[in-house]
Amino acid sequence: MAKEEIVLGIHAVNALIKRSPERFVEMWLLKGRDDERLLPIINLARKYGIPVQLVHRKVLDDKSDGEQHQGVVARVKPGKTYTENDLEDILSEAERNNESPFLLILDGVTDPHNLGACLRNADAAGVQAIVVPKDKAARITATVRKVAVGAAETVPLVQVTNLARTMKQLQQMGVWIIGTAGETDTCLYDVKLDGPMALVMGAEGKGMRRLTREHCDQLVKLPMAGSVSSLNVSVATGICLFEIVRQRRA
């Protein structure tokens, strides 16, 4: 049985309690803080009968391992773990909602802050799921939830055993896979991006692995005009996702 998880930060706790109040085991709030930002969480905790303790800052600091907690920390039961077996259902649900499949694949992103920011980007762009390798990649943690400001509860993180094999399966389901790579001559803005699609972003510093690159249908790059050769992966992800959104709206 998976162990219980820690959730911290106002946005992360608020999003989870609205979506899955049954997962909450207990909650700790900063003693003496009852401002308008925490009041909705307090009211929801009372509504759902979640035990709440008022504690000093040192207790919250210890429970959050020094991460910024904004005066609220919760202990929750583990959520659903998504695997490659869930992808067909995710795409089928998108089609039932008259949405074209739209996925984000992160090839070995290990920084939890980058994963959290990518989740936030994905939620804003309407991505139906993020696919990551099961090994050597960041997974959902308290830090990821806090950075994602609620998006960790709305965008499924699908952990797959073999990323290249999963990409091939997606292609067989009619999903066109676009990978980002600095060595290509094709600019993101010169490619048609309005069908069933998965965008692949590589790891921090290293980019996509060779096998991942070989399983892409097309490679694109962002035009870089200055002396900087690359962007942070979450920044580049946001730019690419919203170019896809722009083309779909057009």
Distance between the amino and carboxyl termini = 47 Å
Category by helix and strand content: alpha/beta
Task: Please give the CATH architecture of the largest domain.
Answer: 3-Layer(aba) Sandwich
CATH superfamily heading of the largest domain:
SPOUT methyltransferase, trefoil knot domain
Total of DSSP H or I helical runs spanning 4+ residues? 9
* Proportion of helical residues: 25-40%
- How many strand segments? 10
CATH class categorisation of the largest domain: Alpha Beta
Number of domains: 2
CATH topology name of the largest domain, in short, is Alpha/beta knot
Give the DSSP E fraction (strand runs of 2 or more residues). Answer: 15-25%
Compute the average pLDDT: 91
Q: What is the C-alpha radius of gyration, as a whole number of Å? A: 20 Å
User: Which sequence of SSEs, written as H and E, runs from N to C?
Assistant: EHEHEHEHEHEHEHEEHEH
Q: Major sheet: order of its strands?
A: 7-6-5-9-8-10
Low-confidence runs = none
From the structure above, extract its key features.
single chain, four-stranded mixed β-sheet, Alpha/beta_knot_MTases, Alpha/beta knot, 9 helices, alpha/beta, 20% strand, 23S_rRNA_MeTrfase_RlmB, 250 residues, EC 2.1.1.185, 60s Ribosomal Protein L30, Chain: A, elongated, cytoplasm, 23S rRNA (guanosine-2'-O-)-methyltransferase RlmB, 2 domains
Chart the SSEs and their pairings:
Layout lengths: L4 E4 L1 H10 L4 E7 L8 H10 L3 E4 L1 H7 L8 E5 L10 H10 L5 E6 L4 H14 L3 E5 L8 H7 L8 E4 L2 H10 L3 E5 L16 E6 L7 H5 L3 E3 L12 H17 L1
Parallel strand pairs: 2-3, 5-6, 5-9, 6-7, 8-9, 8-10
Antiparallel strand pairs: 1-4, 2-4
Catalytic activity: guanosine(2251) in 23S rRNA + S-adenosyl-L-methionine = 2'-O-methylguanosine(2251) in 23S rRNA + S-adenosyl-L-homocysteine + H(+)
Pfam families: SpoU_methylase, SpoU_sub_bind
GO molecular function: RNA binding; rRNA (guanosine-2'-O-)-methyltransferase activity
